[in-house]
What we know:
Strand content: 15-25%
Bound molecules: pyridoxal-5'-phosphate
CATH superfamily: Alanine racemase
Shape: globular
CATH class: Alpha Beta
Order of helices and strands: HEHEHEHEHEHEHEHEH
Largest sheet: 8 strands, parallel
Number of helices: 9
Amino acid sequence: MPNIEHNIAKLYQRIATAAEKSARKPESVLLLAVSKTRSVQEIRTAYQLGLNHFGENYLQDALDKIEQLKDLAIYWHFIGPLQSNKTRLVAENFDWVHTIDRLKIARRLSDQRPSGKKAPLNCCIQVNIDREASKSGLAAEELEKLARQMLELPHLRLRGLMAIPALSNDHQQQSQSFAKMTTLLRQLRAQIPAAAPQLDTLSMGMSADMELAIEEGASIVRIGTALFGPRSPIKDKF
Length: 238
Ligand SMILES: *Cc1c(COP(=O)(O)O)cnc(C)c1O
């Protein structure tokens, strides 16, 4: 088993270095532990070491873990592709959804959010920032419209934007994609000033590119491999 304690320490160092480089506070970046394919024991270990935000992609696996870990005060983030027949279980069991790219899904999540006992579901709109045919996420031009519609939904709280940029070894190109996201969020705040204070989230950056994302303004980095070690390709269907 990889040394999760050591990995967390290294990750906080990487976050601090990247934040300092861009004159940001390290505390302004949330480390979201991506625990897809990981066991409940690994999640418990990471939790005991101070992490309390965990991200999952596969709903059924996630629900099993959420049930087994309900003694812990964990914020669960859904970061996988979301079909409409799965929205109810996500609305009932998660605190965040990062991958909303159409109104139908947003409406269902709001309608199905158990009212009263839970806070609104925190949401990010996924942007297909590099316009890849294979990727989910909506085009930048459609963002304002969906944001305005989502702001009308009573049980959702729109928090910002999420992206998975195209795989690339070209750091400059990756930085440009992250910078575009920062510009899009700034534009959205200007277009809808009443919502500006709540639009505080940019979910971008993974194990290999988190520094670039932080330097361009990421507020949540989604980290799996650098925290828990390599994933088994058999378990990881994504
Ligand atoms: C798996 C996954 C991650 C984590 O990727 P690593 O490279 O292992 O850090 C982040 N975001 C999403 C949406 C993922 O599916």
